[in-house]
Amino acid sequence: MRWGASTGWVLGAAFLLWTTWTSGSPHNSNARWAQSGESRYGMLGKAILEGRTNLGIELPKGLESLENPYLRKNNRSFSGGKLWDTAYYKGKIYIYHGVVPALLLYAPFQQITGTELNDAFALALLCLLASGASCACIRILAGNCPEGWQALAALVATIGPGYAYIIRRADMYEIAIMGGATLTAVSLLLILLGQHRKTSVWTGAAATCWALAVGCRPTAIINLGVPAAVAAKAWREGKRHLVVAGILAATIGVGLGIYNWARFERVWEFGTRYMLTGLDTGIATPAYYSAEIFKYNFPFYALNPPEWTWEFPYAVALRSWHGHAGQVIGEPLTGVVGTTPVAVLAILGAALAFKKGRNRIWWAAITLTWAPALLAVAAVIFTSMRYLLDFTPAMLTASCAVACRWLAAPRRGKYPSWRAATAATLLLLSVPTPALLSLKGYYHNFERFEPGSYNTLKTVGHAITNPIRDTLTKKTVRGRKTDGTTVGTVPSSEFPPENTGPPEQTVLHHKSFGSLGERDPRAQEWIMETTLIAPDQKNYEWRVACTGEATLSINGKPVLTTQGKPAWTQTLLGKGSHTVQLKYKTEGARTLHAYYGDENSGAAYRPIGQGGNGDTWEPPETP
After folding, report:
1. Is 610:511 a contact under the CB 8 Å cutoff?
2. Which of 20, 201, 225, 488 has the fewest CB atoms in 10 Å of its CB?
3. pLDDT tens-digit map of 492-528
């Protein structure tokens, strides 16, 4: 009985479904994306059934009268809420993400059931389909690999790409990306199934899925694997493969062009030129790619490991902001190899495309799928965990297939070969990190919507790790106690735990300055102010980094000023409320980050502007 890959997929699928249910699913009425009528793709599905291309959102008063509604300084008061990251053209609001998810999922579901498909369920379904296609490829290529190792490889292919992390925030961005990733995964499976069959049905179906993937996420057009595989089949077996695949893909392409023309009077325009967002658009499509920024982003996407701490859930995604003037947004990010070490074997999978063998076309196809996507994503001026899904599904499918090949190698005497031992080790190391990262995910949705379950896991985890931590390490606290004496080195367990109450009741290190994430390269000066509550008198450390000039004031007294470089200071705050103000002055700078940590936080520094999303800043040298 061949149970390995299917068992691994079932285990991974169970974890993904549990993640969906604990992330603010419809049984939680306060989930922001679970409310009917709020989903952009739900709106688009309804629009399709009603025969229109716009979302049907009523325009706020004053938007149409703006001289240039695409400049951030003009649309700032209009582009929030339902209009955020939408496309505005000639009095109508559109979605600039691909239409295919609405055509294949949202519109049919609403037509059949009469209700709107929930984004969380749609995203979970796409993740299950993508991982299922990957596991099927692994099963076909595994050969005589032991079933247990096949199960582990399938489990890595199911949770390793980051599906659970993005499920924590199901929104239009994730739906579009996963729609493209799912159809790309299915197209690669079809290539594998049809590479030794004469009929053109398989290549035609693969080309159709590839074209539909472009309809979900237009940047998927750079995934050259399927077109290359079709061309190889045509070269080897006849032009019919190319003709059939070309006609089917071209038909979908023409349909997308007509759809774009109906909205923006341009065949190639998906709406990015007309976005209402934090960028100035409307004159020309913004330059989303930068060769200069590639050298900064590539190490993050390829190699960056998470920050490991003794605090549950132990693995924390690091902020990828590096201060380059061309970067607009730097969300927390871990690299594919740093999260799933088995991904390094994808390079060896690429080598199999040049080796004579039964599946060389497929190895070439999957390499030409993940490699261009990785290079392109690294050049984008935004960084985000969700962009990993452009290349990680294909990359980990190839990696896990190589690992199974190595594990299928014969033993040398009593012990497995070095290749089998390496593959087994890499697979084992690739399971825990993506699972732990997903327990935070975007916006701490697990902790927010299922605090009981989260705190139960946290209690169990700390019961196991705290004794180990206190045995192996002690926490060094810098600064002074309230009586003026120097703080020494004491066991970590003596420190009080963090406040775990709801956001409006949490203490200082969970408060936020609000919209520090707003990046307007043309803003001259802006001020953010908030009232923070300290639970008792203690020392707090502050770090600010920006490419402009920033001044941090507490209770009206400036405590830190910096211009163009990171700065650090320490303040003693008494118990009670404190007014914290941050003034930011810039002439073209795009990004500002402010971090803090109290005397109990050790090396963990949380970003003031993100409300404790787990980012870290290395502790400063003693001034």
Report:
1. no
2. 488
3. 333 333 333 222 222 222 222 333 333 333 344 666 6
Q: Which amino acid is at 42?
A: G
A 10 A CB-CB count for 305 gives 14
- The three-class DSSP label of residue 277 is coil
Asked if residues 155 and 12 have their Cβ atoms less than 8 Å apart, the reply is yes
**DSSP H or E segment with residue 152:** helix 147-159
Partners of 558 in beta bridges: 553
Tokens representing 86 are 């939408």
Q: Is 309 left (phi over 0), alpha (psi -120 to 50) or beta?
A: beta
pTM: 0.75
Tokens 């507490």 locate to 554
pLDDT, tens digit, 9 for 90 and up, residues 172-209: 899 999 999 999 999 999 999 988 788 889 999 999 99
Say how far apart CA 172 and CA 117 lie, in whole Å. Answer: 13
DSSP 18-63: HHHHTTT-TTSTT-TTSSTT--HHHHHHHHHHTT-SS--PPPPTTS
* Token pair of 398 as six digits: 């190839």
Q: What's the DSSP call for residue 382?
A: E
Greatest Cα pair distance, the chain, in angstroms, is 85
Peptide bond into 286 cis (omega under 30): no
Query: Residue 236: is it exposed, middle or buried by C-beta count within 10 angstroms (0-12/13-18/19+)?
Result: exposed
- Using CA atoms, how far apart are residues 472 and 547, in angstroms rounded to an integer? 39
Alpha carbon distances (Å) from 484 to 305, 437, 488 = 39, 39, 12
